[in-house]
Amino acid sequence: MSDAPKPTLAFFGATGGSVAACLSLSLKAGYTCTALARTPEKLQNLLLATSIPASTLSEKLTIIPGDARSLPDIKATLAPANGPAASTIISGLGTPPPTSGLHFLRDLAAADWTICTTTMQAILTALNELALPKPPLLVLMSTTGISAGPRDIPLLCWPLYHYMLAKPHVDKKAMETMAGEAVGKGEKSVEGGVVIVKPSLLTDGVELGTSVVRVGVEAKPAVGYTISRRDVGRWIFEEIVEKGGRKWVGEKVSITY
């Protein structure tokens, strides 16, 4: 058994289902975590609802109040004043789909269709400026349906992905491109490696366990209809946090049932 210290984790989008699930599992396993949250109380209550003791939150979690589009807030999350710098970054930000009914137009008007690219630029800039002694592993949550390789969604999902979800997917694709360009340029921000996780259509279903999760890469994707946010969080925890994620560095990893 290795005596190496556990990685320290920084989370963006931690009030979202998949990243929240990964954060909860990481805290329960004793990892030191930092999370950026616009409303810290919302994140605390969400985690307490997953049976994490308040003492664990106090000892293992630093919540940075702020905005993921703010460079100072990103820096404070990656290198907090009262704790170690992040060795793994997990970002799952995205624009949620509009609600149906009376609030549909309101949600459309309020949506930030560039949240992924704006945050990605801030993270890359922060890492270049911080110049951490050990560049962290960068894990980005994207989506299937935007691959440059073989088709990674069922044909029946094509209209949904390329019409109803087209606008947020432009943002996800641009985020992937930015990460790839940073790798191509050899920027210090990505010297720790990049893993892009691409789940199929996300649901709020129960956790089935990673034994039923199928995994592929861009050249040979796993094609399926849906996957629970809880199982996405579990997969990231097991494969990236617990196992270190080196197997997946440089890959665009599709996961589905």
What does this structure look like?
- This protein has helices at residues 17-28, 40-48, 54-60, 71-78, 104-110, 115-130, 158-164, 166-185, 229-242; strands at 9-12, 33-37, 61-65, 88-91, 137-141, 194-199, 201-203, 214-217, 226-228, 252-256.
- Strand 1, helix 1 and strand 2 (33-37) form a beta-alpha-beta unit.
- It is built from nine helices and ten strands.
- The chain is of the alpha/beta class.
- Helix 1 crosses helix 9.
Keywords:
single chain, 257 residues, alpha/beta, 8-stranded mixed sheet, 9 helices, 39% helix, globular
Provide the fold topology.
Layout lengths: L8 E4 L4 H12 L4 E5 L2 H9 L5 H7 E5 L5 H8 L9 E4 L12 H7 L4 H16 L6 E5 L16 H7 L1 H20 L8 E6 L1 E3 L10 E4 L8 E3 H14 L9 E5 L1
Parallel strand pairs: 1-2, 1-4, 2-3, 4-5, 5-6, 6-10, 7-9
Antiparallel strand pairs: 8-10
Helix pairs in contact: 1-9, 4-6, 6-8
